[in-house]
Write a structure and sequence with these properties.
Elements (H helix, E strand, L loop, with lengths): L1 E2 H8 L3 H9 L7 E2 L5 E3 L1 H14 L5 H9 L5 H31 L11 H13 L3 H11 L2 H12 L2 H14 L2 H9 L4 H19 L9 H18 L4 H14 L1 H11 L3 H13 L2
Antiparallel strand pairs: 1-3, 2-3
Helix pairs in contact: 6-8, 7-8, 11-12, 12-15, 13-15
């Protein structure tokens, strides 16, 4: 057993933070001694390590608690997702360093190669592999087998419109390698759900400001949060194009506009579009 002070010295987490984690039920001590000291065993230390991994990606504590307390919590799957996210963060930093080196050398260049047949097959195969058993069964029944479903996916991604869409996505992801990495190594369902809820809550927070000047600091601050949440959820490199595309969707997608106006008030879709456009206005 280790005391709070020993855990603090071992991990670098302050005693005050450990006390707070106990108070909110995120990391209760294994036991409390007769003298009132909080004591932690190796299992508690492992849970703390999981928490710190999630905090590395700025996930809210309440969402971390939901994941750790979920009856569907799969330690190995979560660890693999966290490892992949950390590897991607490392890769992004390495690319940024390489990009700065290229700029300093006067050799700035980006690869925007269009996706070929092999790329599409790899993406489709990964998409199918990451579907749940029930989803695979439904897809196979609908299209007459697993191979037929993957063939349908490949054909859909090979159309001219799909190629145009993917070419645009390359701009958001920075390069083909990054997009392929994200497409073939999706986050776990639990992590995706947590980030998705955070993204949605910030969008609602922005929608609640409807009527407030979109050029005001308070609105731009929320749009900044919105952008950061989108970047975590979709793992994009260049956010401006993606966010302005979202603004355009709020203006032109009638089904989306009606749904938002009905659930959150008339004019919500237009307000969100204006807020996003104002944030990126040069």
């Amino acid at each position: 057993m280790r005391t709070v002070k020993e855990i603090s010295n071992l991990t670098g987490i302050s005693v005050r933070t450990l006390h707070y984690y106990h108070e909110i039920g995120l990391l209760p001590p294994t036991e409390i001694s007769e003298a009132g000291y909080r004591l932690y065993d190796d299992k508690a230390l492992e849970i703390l390590r999981q928490i710190l991994f999630f905090r590395e990606f700025d996930m809210p504590l309440k969402e971390i608690r939901k994941i750790l307390q979920s009856p569907d919590f799969d330690r190995e799957t979560i660890l693999r997702s966290q490892k992949r996210m950390l590897e991607m963060k490392k890769e992004r930093l390495n690319r940024m360093i390489a990009s700065i080196d290229d700029i300093l050398k006067g050799e700035e260049a980006m690869d925007f190669t269009v996706f070929g047949t092999q790329d599409i097959e790899e993406i489709c195969s990964a998409a199918f592999a990451n579907m749940s058993g029930e989803q695979r069964k439904i897809a196979a029944e609908q299209y007459g087998g697993e191979e037929a479903f993957q063939k349908h996916l490949a054909e859909s991604m090979s159309t001219e419109q799909a190629q145009k869409t993917m070419s645009k996505m390359l701009e958001w992801y920075g390069d083909k390698e990054t997009y392929m990495d994200v497409a073939t190594h999706p986050l776990s369902a639990q992590v995706t759900e947590a980030y998705g809820k955070r993204f949605e809550s910030i969008r609602k927070k922005l929608a609640a400001k409807r009527g407030t000047d979109v050029r005001s600091f308070e609105v731009k601050e929320i749009v900044g949060e919105f952008e950061f949440a989108a970047k975590q959820l979709f793992r994009l490199k260049h956010m401006e194009g993606f966010m302005l595309e979202m603004a355009a969707d709020y203006r032109t997608n009638e089904a989306l506009r009606q749904q938002m106006d009905q659930t959150e008030g008339q004019g919500t879709a237009d307000y969100l579009a204006e807020a996003l456009e104002a944030f990126y206005k040069k």
